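help with this:

***
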Amino acid sequence: MTEQEIVELKENLEAKLAELIDRAEKLENKLREPGDSDWSENAVALENQETLMALEGATEKEIGDIRLALDRIAKGEYGRCSRCQKSIPKARLSVLPWATTCVQCA
């Protein structure tokens, strides 16, 4: 990848990270809301809470992946497979910008 492509990617990752952090905070606040005193309403709320918890977990994982990618950019390791040290193809990075391995090592 060219230096300009990496700069643009870094900016995109930082924007996505900010968006995900905001989403994680909203999910956390939603999960902290008190339940309803109505039993049937609580059953629905519990089901919704399980969905929110799954979304929160997925969001936290994506935040971690993006932070790792930004760290690899800072260290000059971005775009290189962490296992075989070969270049990760641009096509893979365009679909999964936080990929740390090439397809063969994944």
